[in-house]
Task: structure prediction
Amino acid sequence: MNECSKSLPRHGRTGVTPVWVVCLLLLACTRIAAAAESLVNPFNDPFIQATDGLPGCPVPQPPTFTEEEYRAAAHERAQRGVSCWLDGRCRLANAYMYDKEIVPRVKTALKAAGRFDATSVWVLGQRRFVWLKGCVQTRAQASDIERLVREIDDVQQVHNELMIGTEGRPPYPVAPR
Result:
């Protein structure tokens, strides 16, 4: 008798579990496993590596959601995305529509500045908010990058999650290897 069959409830005189009970247990286990699986970037939020000059930098995990988180976020994103347009704060009908323009502009600005070549920076855009993840050499460099990104048209907020150097625990989730 294996471990799995030991945990099955026994019924009737024969001690055999009815097929329907086994089916229900398998269905429940399947649903639990499916709910735990991550959906990688299901909203197609722009997530790119803007610079790659600091080897050994921990690679950030792209945005992930469980199926349940995805459903909850979809509703919230629909409301938040359109609210800025309804309030007259956005020229586009949804704040998430800006991100596909903003993130490439961040990469272009970092490259054009010429002083961030020795960094490894990833950029994530969601609702006109920009997350900076990766590694820089100094705190001043992290501040300079943040300041540069804040000045880009349509950027509403910048979340600086850059770490100094490549050692230690990053302030962002790391991609599985």
Remarks:
- The CA atoms of residues 10 and 148 lie 67 Å apart.
- The longest helix spans residues 67-86.
- The longest strand covers residues 129-136.
